[in-house]
């Protein structure tokens, strides 16, 4: 059976968001004589990470955001990485910091994240950002979760009173997207690798967010007819965490992979970089 769900086009929406960020960046540059600057930090030469960073830097340039790239060898220690990030946090010419993750297993990733100054945490990865996002106060949200919420808003998905199920509990995706949904008055259930009879839980979802990191892990049998399905996974072969064909016959709305959540993540990163620069440059 062919998919019948309506596609949630993240590419088109992200394009309009980036255009607005570029307009704001240009205005800020005219007003202050300084353009927004995003520092990207990459440890090692993992091909996927190198590609992601290159793509983000290219998008920055198109949006009028300066990009400073710091490439560190794979043997970099936690202390060396923390020192590098601390230096960027203390540099007034840098407005946002992105540490490409995951880093090597020998590095304490959390310690590296926490070296990012809160006002420069445009990727929303620190404890501070998680707390401000969860309490709905001023700060930076995790980029992918924030992008998901904006996509849901664009397609008119009402969240208040709805049951949202998040499959995945990572610190930068599963947990924060659940908190954002809770902040919109959805009833949120988290599922994970130890959830008993996963399908019986996911079939209760009005909104299902797949963030488990396993290709085609969720199929049509996991989905309530008419549900909104957000596939936040990206796996080798350009496939998500949801089996698109079977899920698309039951969902009412569904994100494609690629072209759904991914572009929204980058658009959010650029927007938050401009936000950070605006706060910094207008405060001096």
Q: Write down the secondary-structure element order.
A: EHEHEHEHHHEHEHEEHEH
Q: What gap, in angstroms, lies between the N and C termini?
A: 60 Å
Biggest sheet architecture: 6 strands, parallel
> What portion of residues belong to β-strands?
5-15%
Q: Report the count of strand segments.
A: 9
The shape, in one word, is globular
Q: What does the model show?
A:
The protein is 42% helix and 14% strand. The chain contains ten helices and nine strands. Strand 5, helix 7 and strand 6 form a beta-alpha-beta unit.
Summarize the entry for a quick read.
The protein has 284 residues and is α/β, with parallel strands linked by helices.
Give the tags:
10 helices, 284 residues, 6-stranded parallel β-sheet, alpha/beta, 3-stranded parallel β-sheet, 42% helix, 14% strand, single chain
Q: Can you lay out the helices and strands and say which pair or pack?
A:
Layout: E1 6-7, H1 10-32, E2 37-43, H2 47-62, E3 66-72, H3 78-89, E4 96-99, H4 109-114, H5 127-135, H6 143-154, E5 163-167, H7 174-183, E6 187-191, H8 198-202, E7 207-210, E8 228-231, H9 244-248, E9 253-254, H10 261-281
Parallel strand pairs: 1-9, 2-3, 2-4, 5-6, 5-7, 7-8, 8-9
